[in-house]
Write a structure and sequence with these properties.
Layout: H1 4-18, E1 27-28, E2 34-36, H2 39-46, E3 51-57, E4 60-65, E5 69-73, E6 78-83, E7 93-98, E8 104-109, E9 115-119, H3 122-128, H4 143-152, H5 158-163, H6 173-183, H7 196-215, E10 256-260, E11 263-267
Parallel strand pairs: 2-9
Antiparallel strand pairs: 1-7, 3-4, 4-5, 5-9, 6-8, 7-8, 10-11
Helix pairs in contact: 1-7, 4-7, 6-7
The structure holds a DNA duplex (12 and 12 nucleotides).
DNA sequence: GCTTACCTGTCG
DNA sequence: CGACAGGTAAGC
C-alpha cells in the first residue's frame, strides 16, 4: 500500500482542498469498499457532514467531521484523488464522495482491499480497530521511546516487528527494507540482539527514510498516486527495495531478495549481517 | 511464528 | 502457467 509517507502526502495535499467542505450523497460502485456502517446508512449519514480537519494515524487517513470521522485505508492499491470531474473511465473506481459545489473524492482500488469507515463514536472506532494501532512512528515516537519499545520485544525479529501496526504504526515493506539497509541491520535479527547504538541508528534511519519519502511525494513503485493523481518520486531513490541483483549503493555487492516474515525482503548481505562479526 | 485468504493485475 | 505485488486479519 501506500505506507506512512504516501498517506501523509495525500493528507497534506487534500487538507487545504477539502477542509470546511460539505459532503453530498456518496455513489458506491463497489459496496464492499464501505466497511462501516452498512452501505445505505453510510451514504445517508455522510451526506451533509462537513470536513473540519484531516489527520493520519499510521496508514489510516482520518477526515474529522462535524459529527464523527471518515477513516480511509488504501491497503495495497487504493487511491484517493480529488477532482472537479471524473476525467476518464476508471475500471477500478469503487466510490465517489462528492462535495456540495461540484468537486469530489474519487476512491479507486484495483484489488479491493482498501476500505472506508464512517465512525461516529468510540465504540465504532474500537470495532474498526483504529484504537488498536501502536504509536505513530512519525509523530509519536522519539529515540528513547523507540529504544524502550524495542527492548520490550527482545525475541521478535526486526522485520515482522517493524511491520506490526500494533507495535508501531506506519511502516510497510518498502520503508522497513530501506531503513534496515541504511542502518546496516539484517531484517532477521532479533530485537534483543541490538545494541543501544544499533537501535538508535535504526531509529534515525527510519526517520530519515520516512522524511525523504514524504519530501519526494511518496513512492510510486506501481499504483500509488497522490491526492492530485500524480506519481511520487522516491522510487528513484530506493537503495535496495525491488532492486534484486543491482549493486548495493554502499559496497557494490548485488542486492539480495529473501523472504522474511512471508514478505519479499531486499537487502545487501554484505552490509547487513545476521550474526555480528560473522562473514555470512 | 507461519500460512492462507482476501482481489486483480503484471511480468517472466 | 506460476510468481509476485505497497496490507492485514484469521487460523493453525
Amino acid at each position: 500500500m501506500p505506507e506512512l509517507p504516501e498517506v501523509e502526502v495525500i493528507r497534506r495535499g487534500l487538507a487545504p482542498l477539502i477542509c470546511h467542505k460539505e459532503f453530498g450523497r456518496p455513489v458506491l460502485l463497489y459496496t464492499g469498499a464501505v466497511r462501516h456502517p452498512a452501505p445505505e446508512k453510510f451514504c445517508q449519514n455522510l451526506a451533509g457532514r462537513r470536513v473540519e480537519n484531516l489527520g493520519r494515524a499510521g496508514k489510516y487517513l482520518r477526515l474529522g467531521l462535524d459529527r464523527g470521522e471518515l477513516a480511509v485505508h488504501l491497503r495495497m492499491t487504493g487511491r484517493l484523488v480529488y477532482r472537479e470531474n471524473a476525467d476518464f473511465p476508471d475500471p477500478h473506481l469503487r466510490a465517489v464522495l462528492p462535495f456540495t459545489g461540484g468537486a469530489a473524492l474519487f476512491f479507486s482500488d484495483m484489488r479491493k482491499f482498501g476500505g472506508l469507515w464512517l465512525l461516529e463514536n468510540r465504540e465504532e472506532r474500537r470495532q474498526a480497530g483504529l484504537d488498536r494501532l501502536g504509536p505513530d512512528i512519525y509523530e509519536e515516537v522519539g529515540p528513547e521511546r523507540f529504544c524502550a519499545l524495542i527492548r520490550e520485544r527482545r525475541r521478535s525479529r526486526l522485520k515482522p516487528l517493524l511491520l506490526d501496526q500494533h507495535f508501531v504504526a506506519g511502516l510497510g515493506n518498502i520503508y522497513v527494507d530501506e531503513s534496515l539497509f541504511r542502518a546496516g541491520i539484517h531484517p532477521g535479527r532479533a530485537a534483543g540482539s541490538l545494541s543501544r547504538e544499533e537501535i538508535l541508528a535504526l531509529y534515525w534511519a527510519v526517520r530519515a527514510v520516512l522524511q525523504e519519502g514524504i519530501d519526494c511525494g511518496g513512492t510510486s513503485a506501481r499504483d500509488y498516486r497522490d491526492a492530485f493523481g500524480e506519481r511520487g518520486a522516491f522510487q528513484d531513490r530506493l537503495a535496495v527495495y525491488g532492486r534484486r541483483g543491482r549493486p548495493c549503493p554502499r559496497c557494490g555487492a548485488p542486492v539480495t531478495r529473501a523472504v522474511v516474515a512471508g514478505r519479499g525482503t531486499y537487502l545487501c548481505a554484505r552490509c547487513q549481517k545476521l550474526e555480528i562479526g560473522s562473514k555470512k
